[in-house]
């Protein structure tokens, strides 16, 4: 079974804390993505990566950074968490070159920033 | 900005009925995909339809694509309580590189 694993299902952090969300995939996919999901706003792309050490901004990169040191791992970093970053964060991986194919999602990480 | 918009936002039906969800998008696409999400979980891919295809089937799912109207529909036949979930369309726009853009989703409730 293909698998995308997110390190934490639920996190509670305080404003100003640094937050790491880890994502690992076992499918040798080139592309990895971080989305956030909020009620009424659907999924919005934060960052994506199409290769090791490569990253591209999505629609809402402000307040976030990412790291891809190994092909299987893509980390989302909140340098200084704020309450408006309370959300569900979804990691995904996929093959996509040109015409994007199927994405495989993790179970999500629900972050609450107090 | 959202490329795809689902309609309706919420749908409630009885078990055994068919459920139809629609998706409209704005720019030309390479393909359109449908995903399902159970409450509080990740998304699961259901079906992909390419821009040169008009209809595709997978089990109880039927997806149509009308590129002239920039719209797609997902039909779930003979629905079951277990089909209760949110359903999202996602488009791979021609000018969007390797990115999928998701709509806001349709929340489907199937009552037993």
Give a verbal description of the structure.
Chain A is mostly beta strands and 114 residues long. Chain A is 0% helix and 52% strand. In chain A, strands 2, 5, 6, 7, 10, 11 and 12 form a seven-stranded mixed beta sheet that branches. The model of chain A has no long low-confidence stretch (mean pLDDT 92). Chain B is mainly β and 112 residues long. Chain B has no helices and eleven strands. The relative contact order of chain B is 0.35. The mean pLDDT of chain B is 91. Classes of the chains: A mainly beta (114), B mainly beta (112). Chains A and B meet through β5, β6, β10 and β11 of A and β4, β5, β9 and β10 of B.
What is the terminal-to-terminal distance of chain A? 37 Å
Question: What structural class do you assign from the helix and strand content of chain B?
Answer: mainly beta
Profile the largest sheet of chain A.
7 strands, mixed
SS summary, helix count of chain A: 0
Categorize the overall geometry of chain B. Answer: globular
Could you tell me how far the N terminus lies from the C terminus of chain B, measured between alpha carbons in angstroms? 37 Å
Task: Bin the helical content of chain B.
Answer: under 10%
- What is the CA-atom radius of gyration of chain A, in angstroms? 13 Å
Question: Count of DSSP E strands of chain A?
Answer: 12
Gross geometry of chain A: globular
Given helix and strand content, the structural type of chain A is: mainly beta
The helicity of chain A comes to: under 10%
* Poorly predicted parts of chain B: none
How confident is the prediction overall: mean pLDDT of chain B?
91
